Amino acid sequence: MENKTDFQYPHTFVLLGASGDLAKKKIYPTIWYLYRDNLLPKNTKFIGYARTKQSLEDIKEKSKKYIKVRPGEEKKLEEFWKANDYVTGSYDKRTDYELLNQHISKFEKGPTANRIFYLAVPPTVFEDVTVNIRNACIAIKGYTRVIIEKPFGRDDESSDKLSSHLASLFKEEQIYRIDHYLGKEMVQNLLTLRFANQIFSPSWNRENIASVLISFKEPFGTEGRGGYFDSFGIIRDVMQNHLLQILSLVAMEKPVTLNPNDIRDEKVKVLRHIKPIQLENVLVGQYVGNPNGQGEEKLGYLDDPTVPKGSVTPTYAITVLYIDNSRWQGVPFILRCGKALNERKAEVRVQYKNVPGDIFEGHAKRNELVIRVQPGEALYLKLMSKSPGMKFDLLETELDLTYSVRYKETDVPDAYERLILDVFTGTQMHFVRNDELKEAWRIFTPVLKELEEKHIKPLSYVYGSRGPPEADAKLAECDFKYSGSYKWQKPTPS
Ligand code: BG6
Question: Glucose-6-phosphate dehydrogenase NAD-binding domain spans which residues (predicted)?
Answer without folding.
Answer: 14-189
